[in-house]
Write a structure and sequence with these properties.
single chain; alpha/beta; 15 strands; Cytidine Deaminase, domain 2; 5-stranded mixed sheet
């Protein structure tokens, strides 16, 4: 098929709308539902991200997209007990037997608030375990290279049978040149086919020069994620997944603060008090996520009144000391930036969220200040020479 008609474009007043190719066939087949304009933007960007993650790191990958940026991305490493509870998948039987299910649980677990109503992309066939996770989450749709019969049957029951399910052709490669129009003017450029792998991590510029393989993998994951994130962007990663994505900010430090704040929330979700909040069994999953977010934000102060509507008993307060002690244990975090750091304040903020490894293009007139800040805290930094702006 060369063309698909859409209900409307970005907004209901923008119609008629369609997606099409000028040569060949569309790389996606609709198996269920009626994906929208933004769904396709998410799906096609997300597919590129997960296929590059799998090619670079050799494991199944997943991403959770919202408004043309990833809320999270991950490879399929097993989840320990705390991760399972924090990612709300501790009741999924056989979770760690399915790498693709682990990848999606981690990707959505990066930032469950932002993943509400996401579009999902998987690098591998969607199995029943993965579909079981997706079935109970609020999500707009999914794209994958295939589905087991049981997974497809289950996913088709979502949203009263209207859940958007796309199958992508793994062999599809677009033309080298890409075009877009703005205000009647056509822009043309080569696609960003830059390969992101360990060859980008051969130029350490700090006193700490040798890093473990897991940190290299996390830096690669962060950089590939940034390649498909609206600029400016900064990504924090740890343990084979993003833990905070700061997307679409005009100021680099605001990217770093946003990503760092999200990473702090991700880590606080693993605090014992948060893991064992006494929710009422009847409470819906989005409500739990909202309450966890509120609890982490103010230590539970706002939940002391009217707690009976949400909990079986009054939730304990998290003191500033509790939070500081827990935050101090976050370490070994990798950070990628889609462009250079213009000031060392980015490093000062990054270290507060456990960053020990940095990959960025370099090229600022203040590179020496940034390097000095890294050396001050024993942070390893690599200049990649590769800018990753995405618009």
């Amino acid at each position: 098929m060369k063309e698909l008609s859409l209900k409307y474009g970005c907004n209901p007043q923008q119609k008629p709308a369609r997606i099409f190719v000028e040569q060949g066939e569309l790389p996606v087949t609709v198996l269920n539902g009626q994906p929208g304009y933004i769904n396709y933007l998410d799906a096609l960007n997300a597919w590129q991200l997960v296929r590059e993650l799998k090619a670079a790191l050799g494991m199944p990958a997943a991403t959770s997209f919202k408004h043309v940026s990833p809320a999270g991305a991950a490879i399929g490493l097993p989840l320990d007990e705390a991760d399972q509870i924090a990612c709300a998948v501790d009741d999924i039987a056989g979770l760690n037997d399915s790498p693709v299910a682990c990848a999606y649980a981690r990707a959505r677990g990066t930032d469950r608030m932002s993943s509400f109503g996401d579009f999902i992309a998987l690098s591998d066939v969607c199995d029943l375990t993965t579909a079981s996770i997706i079935k109970r989450e609020v999500s707009d749709g999914i794209l994958a290279p295939g589905y087991t019969p049981e997974a497809l049957e289950l996913l088709k029951t979502k949203r009263n049978g209207n859940y958007a399910i796309l199958q992508v052709s793994e062999s599809y490669e677009p033309a080298e040149m890409e075009r877009k129009q703005v205000f009647g003017v056509t822009f043309e450029q080569p696609r960003n086919t830059a390969k992101i792998d360990e060859s980008l991590l051969v130029r350490p510029v700090t006193m700490v020069r040798d890093i473990r393989q897991g940190a290299k993998d996390d830096l690669i994951l962060a950089l590939i994620t940034l390649k498909y994130t609206q600029s400016n962007s900064v990504c924090f990663a740890a343990g084979g997944q993003t833990i905070g994505v700061g997307a679409g900010q005009q100021s680099r430090i605001h990217c770093t603060r946003l990503a760092g704040d999200k990473a702090d929330v991700w880590w606080m979700r693993r605090h014992e008090a948060v893991l064992h909040l006494p929710f009422l069994p009847s409470l819906k999953r989005p409500d739990r996520d909202n309450l966890i977010d509120c609890y982490i934000a103010d230590g539970g102060v706002s939940l002391q009144s009217g707690w009976e509507a949400y909990f079986t008993k009054r939730p304990p307060l998290l003191t500033g000391k509790d939070r500081a002690e827990h935050t101090s244990r976050l370490s070994g975090v990798s950070l990628g930036s889609d462009a250079f750091f213009p000031f060392d304040d980015n490093i000062e903020r990054a270290r507060e969220s456990g960053v020990a490894y940095v990959a960025q293009p370099g090229g600022s007139v203040r590179d020496e200040d940034v390097i000095a800040a890294c050396d001050k805290y024993g942070i390893a930094m690599f200049f990649t020479g590769l800018r990753l702006f995405h618009h």
